[in-house]
Amino acid sequence: MAAHGRPPLPLLLLSACLYSCVAVRGFKVSSGPAEPPNPPAVRTVDLPAKEEAAAQPRRASGWKLAEEEACREDLSRLCPKHTWTNNLAVLECLQDRREHMELAPDCNHLLWSYKLNLTTDPKFESVALEVCKSTIAEIKECNDEERGRGYLVSCLVDHRGNISEYQCNQYVTKMTSIVFSDYRLICGFMDKCKEDINLLHCGSINVGQKDIHSQGEVIACLEKALVKEAEQQNHIRPIKEECQKAILRVAELSSDDFHLDRHLYFACRDDRERFCLNVQAGEGRVYKCLFNHKFEEAMSEKCRDALTTRQKLISQDYRVSYSLAKACKLDLKKQHCSLDTALPRAREARLSHLLLCLEAAVHRGRPVSGECQGEMLDYRRMLMEDFSLSPEIVLHCRTEIEAHCSGLHRKGRTLHCLMRVGRGDHSTVGSVCQGALQTLIQSADPGADYRIDRALNEACESVIQTACKHIRSGDPMILSCLMEHLYTEKMVEDCEHRLLELQYFISRDWKLDPILYRKCQGDAARLCHTHGWNETSDLMPAGAVFSCLYRHAYRTEEQGRRLSRDCKMEVQRVLHQRALDVKLDPELQKRCISDLGKWCSSKNDAGQELECLQDHLEDLVQSCRDVVGNLTELESEIQMKDFRFSYKFKMACKEDVLRLCPNIKKKVDVVVCLSTTVRNDTLQEAREQRVSLKCRKQLRVEELEMSEDIRLEPELYDPCKPDISRLCPNVPFGNAQMIECLKEQKRHLSPRCHQRIFRLQEVEMSDPELDYQLMRVCKQMIKRFCTEADARNILQCLKQNKNSELMDPKCKQMITKRQITQNTDYRLNPVLRKACRVDIPKFCKSILNKASEDSELEGQVISCLKLKYADQKLSSDCEDQIRVILQESALDYRLDPQLKVHCSEEISSLCAEEAAAQEQMGQVEECLKVNLLKVKHDDCKKEVLNMLKESKADIFVDPVLHTACALDLKHHCAAVTPGRGRQMSCLMEALQVKRVRLQPECKKRLQDRIDMWSYAAKVAPAEGFSDLAVQVMTSPSKNYLLFMVALSVCVLFLVGLLCGRITKRVTRELKDR
Where would one find the signal peptide in this protein (predicted)? Predict the structure, then answer.
């Protein structure tokens, strides 16, 4: 904070004032602590007689802090030399050091006394009057301040947010760090809190005594006392109201820059560098950053304690948070949440009041700015993470916490512990604590966004990613989705506990279910006489509103007023969820607690308790019988009773199921029935789909969920059960891990299971969205590269971006897996199948005739097409696709099934090191080419020769050669069109021309290829005239060969012509005889 460069005008004026004020006030300096004699007003500081006698006056114009013996050693050790001539720069440098460790007490005392005299000196105020003349006139409070008591500068600091004048703003900014370095300099603070400081032993304020406190420690002591007082039922030492206001006002004034909170600044200096080094100070940014890291293991305890104290102050007065107060200022006025004179100021300014008021506006659909909602989200999460920020919880739940939840302070665990105890069969949570918990949950409102509840978020992350991935993150429907999957295979135990703990309290206040409240608030006001979202009534007990709503849910027109359609649907949803656990229905639990223990104590599974009560309906007490009877009547109105159905699916497909699949009850069978109907309509190109559009959309979601667990697809699961127990015994079913295991073990599967897996892969390749593992692993990469790609082209898009530097390694590995699968059979590559639909039956008919419908062709068709590509016989579309496959397999031998099968021994013996490389860039293929003479098996040798043949047709399928000759291609063959061996011929011709100089590596690789091709020609001669013609036409030396052929023909012609003439002459001579 030391000053750099030329000081601005205010500082020049201030420096001049400092020098003059020393002369006017007769400032004395001694070898010991220096004290100016008798400053004005009440805050006088006297020196002991001995020191005063030893003091010698200095000339005002030449006095410097740097010259004082008390600080000379510290100054030379801690401050840059260029600051020594400027008293303010010295002050800034020294006061930001850890004074109790680094500065001598005498130097500390000198600095405090010096600052105290500065702010109380009339000459000092004259600088402010001159620099801030117009600003003071505009701010009435400062204009009315009594001069000569140091209040003017403090007042300007108080109102620094309203100062627009540049020079005045610079001056006040500089003074802020001085004023906040010592509580005695803050406007009126000492007058208002003098008694409390003495009473609470927060420091020494006695005149003439050495200051035993550290800078900012007095305020920190008072702040701790203030928050502690709120957590005590009997205020033993209540802080005076005017001091309470002063404490909160000081905390508010220091809310934008954490340097101004001296205690927190020194406590968190190292933590700031550790966690928030790149966060710029100002506007409360450092505070927020530190709050976010409060529960990190590396956070120091002293910083965590200081942060907790500040958060507790924010809970008492939201204005202590600069970012929250600034972001929500206009919204508070717009929603009439501003200060109300009819309410006590302390209650009105509480964070909970602000949150409740603004949340009520959001729930009613009124506009609240996104910036304000973002700040609210942060502080709602803060309340859920640390129970100690709620004084009501600390006060009223102390006994319960000590008995059941001690040692669980972090990350919301204490709150969930209290919730667990509260919903237990023998609840030991008192009614007052229960009410405090309910109030906190309403303030934090986790039902609106599950991410606010950190404990729930962490416990349910895996379930959300699998079961609720179709719902936008932060959507209120996430909680509903989790409830729908309660007690299913997708639910994990920890998530189940956290979810039920929260739902227990949400179910006791219908307003905490945001979807229910939004859809039913009009009906509740009309039929149940409810109040606003943030208003409560003792006349409306827990669960009463929802009981009222479901009483009106199925009334007929003759019976009177009924619920709206949207509200009725929400009531149905909640009823389904509450059927899972009777504790989620407050009225049912209250009235049936004795019957549950009597008849249903052994029923613990999902929904069994309610079913048990329904079975014993006639045996129940009257009050319980009435509640259970009402629920049973409502359930009978709902056609689809399988609780495992997702709510959205039920609502979207109810009519379609009743019309197309009327006698099917199980979810899997319903999905199969509807999917079959959609598929048949699509294949038959029906004019109108029988399944509605909204149902088709939700059906898509259900199909995706089924792809996540093989057990949800009986047609696949049943034939593969033996293989699962034999090949994948320890693999979990969730996250499609079992299906992935079967795919990897495909060669070892039984025929029936193999057929089913092949059909599944065929469907997934045609519609990659159904490939659960691909979509899960590559989720972020799809967002990055394929946002505009059609759903059916996602895999194609990922393949095109596979070698990007931004590609995630795990996703790249998954793409390679799918490419290997595609290259085993052309039917698994929809793009190739479409492009080569004419070429495949034309050139590979013999292979197709031998294959069965569900058996894999192990890459035979693709190998066939590769050979025809080398012979240049394919159609253009098919040629393009085969070129891509050749380029991909040239880089990774695993993408060539035939090569991998036939050359497995050679790869393991000759190219083991290359095959083990993590990144495949054509090393194995090059190794096999180089070791061609060592290859013993004919099938492998044939595959390597085919590779050489393919590389002659296109240099791009020979990555090693292409890399070596890239520059030469650019220089010598830039005008040559790629493909059909043209660029290879160009390089071969350049090699033969002596004046053309190729790169040494390119020249060497080309010569190696020529030798390989020569050997290939000897080992694998042409099989027929057409093959010979193709070899000649694709040869790099085809011009030379054609010339020799033409020359041979000409020689033969001449020889024949000559022989003909001789023969003719001999014949004629014989005739003449």
Answer: 1-23
At residue 151 the predicted structure's pLDDT band, cuts being 50, 70 and 90, is low
CA distances from 1038 to 948, 1008, 1017 (A): 17, 18, 14
Average pLDDT over residues 998-1002: 88
Cα(584)–Cα(285) distance, rounded to whole angstroms? 41
Question: Measured at the alpha carbon of residue 824, what is the angle toward residues 1019 and 731, in degrees to the nearest 5?
Answer: 135
Question: What one-character DSSP code corresponds to residue 309?
Answer: H
Single out the residue of 462, 455, 450 nearest to residue 491, CA to CA: 462
The two three-digit tokens of residue 498, written as one number: 């956290």
| Most confident of the following: 175-179, 527-531, 592-596, 736-740 | 736-740
Backbone angles phi, psi at 265, to 5 degrees: -60, -50
SS3 annotation, 487-543: CCCCCCHHHHHHHHHHHHHHCCCHHHCHHHHHHHHHHHHHHCCCCCCCCCCCCCCCC
Q: Quick check: 974 pLDDT over 60?
A: yes
DSSP string for residues in 175-197: HHHHHTTSGGGSTTHHHHHHHHH
Helices (H), 931-977: 938-953, 959-964, 966-972
- In the chain, the percentage of residues whose pLDDT exceeds 90 is 4
C-beta atoms surrounding 76 within 10 Å: 11
Integer angstrom CA distances of residue 324 from 272, 328, 332, 379: 21, 6, 11, 9
- Residue-wise pLDDT for 727-759, tens only, equals 999 888 777 888 999 998 988 899 889 888 888
CA dist., res. 738 & res. 728, Å (int): 7
- At 341 the three-state DSSP class reads coil
Query: What is the spatial distance between Cα 331 and Cα 333, in angstroms, rounded to a whole number?
Result: 5
Can you tell me the mean pLDDT for 320-349? 71
pTM over 0.85? The answer is no
* CA-wise closest residue to 609 among 582, 585, 630, 634: 582
CB 645 within 8 A of CB 657: no
Inter-residue contact 153 to 179 (CB < 8 Å): yes
Residues 6 or more apart whose CB falls under 8 angstroms from that of 579 comprise: 607, 610, 631, 635, 643
DSSP β-bridge partners for residue 28? 57
* H helix or E strand, kind and range, residue 124: helix 122-131
Residue 293 DSSP SS3:
coil
Residue 915 C-beta-side C-alpha neighbours within 13 Å: 16
Residue 615, phi then psi, degrees to nearest 5? -65, -30
Contact 439, 392 (CB under 8 A): yes
Query: For 359-389, how does the pLDDT look when each residue is reduced to its tens digit (9 = 90+)?
Result: 888 877 788 898 998 888 888 888 888 888 8
CA separation for the pair 879, 884 (Å, rounded): 9
Residue 57 forms beta bridges with which residues?
28
Provide the β-strand partners of residue 437: none
- The answer to whether 149 and 190 are in contact (CB under 8 A) is no
Decide if 405 contacts 416 (C-beta within 8 A): no
Phi–psi pair at 564, nearest 5 degrees: -70, 160
Residues in the chain: 1073
Residue owning tokens 């309906």: 617
d(CA 860, CA 901): 11
Alpha-carbon distance 137 to 162, whole Å? 12
Phi–psi pair at 28, nearest 5 degrees: -115, 145
Residue pair 914/924 in contact (Cβ under 8 Å)? The answer is yes
Which residues, in sequence order, are bridge partners of residue 29? 56
Computed over every residue of the chain, the mean pLDDT equals 75
Amino acid type, 662: P
Structure tokens at 541: 């007990």
Structure confidence by residue, pLDDT tens digits, 1002-1049? 988 888 888 887 777 666 554 444 455 555 555 556 666 677 777 787
CA 221: distance to chain centroid?
39
Asked if 34 contacts 55 with a C-beta cutoff of 8 angstroms, the reply is yes
